[in-house]
Design goal:
The structure is a homodimer.
Chain A (H helix, E strand, L loop, with lengths): L2 E3 L10 E5 H10 L7 E5 L5 E9 L3 E10 L8 E7 L5 H11 L4 E6 L9 H21 L7 E7 H7 L5 E5 L1 H5 L6 H5 L7 E6 L7 H9 L3 E3 L8 H18 L2
Parallel strand pairs in A: 1-3, 6-7, 6-10, 7-8, 9-10, 9-11
Antiparallel strand pairs in A: 2-5, 3-4, 4-5
Amino acid sequence: MQRYFISADNWISDQQINIDGDDFHHITRVMRMSVGDDVICNHPNGSAAECVIVDVKNDYLVLSVKAWLNQSVELPVHVTIAQGLPKGDKIDLVLQKGTELGAARFILFQASRSVVKWDEKKALKKQDRFNKIVKEASEQSHRNKVPEVEGVSSFQLLLEKSETYNVKLFAYEEEAKSASFTRLSSIFNEITADMSVLVCIGPEGGFSPDEVNLLKAAGFSSVRLGPRILRTETASLYFLSSISYHFEELR
Amino acid sequence: MQRYFISADNWISDQQINIDGDDFHHITRVMRMSVGDDVICNHPNGSAAECVIVDVKNDYLVLSVKAWLNQSVELPVHVTIAQGLPKGDKIDLVLQKGTELGAARFILFQASRSVVKWDEKKALKKQDRFNKIVKEASEQSHRNKVPEVEGVSSFQLLLEKSETYNVKLFAYEEEAKSASFTRLSSIFNEITADMSVLVCIGPEGGFSPDEVNLLKAAGFSSVRLGPRILRTETASLYFLSSISYHFEELR
């Protein structure tokens, strides 16, 4: 059944939801649904309900809740991916695949080796596109929540933001090359449900030595993501898949 | 140090390697290297050596082996990804990321729900491009071996090919939705080093009921890849990351 994330304003009551805008268009034009058809509506708080269309107005739909659903497919751990700005449209891949794989939040940051430089204007322009990518990926993957995408931070601001996290990690290529590396599992074994985990990933070329020193001084631990050298846009996918495996598939 | 996979013919002796073609161009023009510069040369058998350029000819380089390297970053398990042909250029993503994440072989197959249909001519035309993608991704990720990419198989041929594998799996969306699913770890726990594992992934829309029945009859087990529904091009990345985590990072 098709899923839609409906903003809190459109939840009129416990029983009624109105859908307008892009979702209205998608349901009536793309899916060609009408009165009597069912969809799943997700509330921003994570709850979801099976709903039936009861009325089609000019520019919105009225839906009635048939049943509240209580399954959740959210990762038991709250993972934030902090991605150093990569080249081209690789950030789209990180957001889309990271959402499918369960990330709770994304922070983009301007790393010293980021080839692209985004000013506030460019970042604002991209924000709508990013929000759309994570919303669609959440619907597709049957997520209960849409991840947040925070606009571009400076490295300094990223360090400040990191203070609220329980676990602070960074992917470090030298860790993959080292014989005395820290196993990812030894880090995951220290994490318990509902903890917040921040993992920072450098852009192409990785972190600069200065950044590595600042991360370490701020209490970040370096991790290796298997022994092979991953491209920047692949690192978060390995991390999220592994943490999902550890907490959702391993017994 | 830059890495190149050099075909067996170009290993003149235990001490001498000649490099021509694209790699000659890359080393002399793109990297602007010359006599005295070092590169790592990988032999198709998985061995690798640090080499120095000793002579630059018109259309090839002569290198001398300085030291054999004995590190290996190959996955301890031999994983083949059989990917039902997806739309657009998603197959490029599967090949590139799958190589970074350690796949040993890729088989592409024409699934009943594959929207694109490739005839032999189209498949042949794409083969060069696929070989280039996996070679470059292997060099980038410091692999010891370049994965094989087998041209497009029919579903029937895929079933025949599967007979040589120790472990046969298929990703099944219904498994993710089921309350009584088989945990991926219970499958990984039965796998030991050097076993060959084949995992089949359907195209957009998944496997048809007929295909599911044929897979089961041929001894394939269905697996879930976490509780979220992944796009076809994300499934293999989850599988490879998890199996890497299980065998390379978990203790």
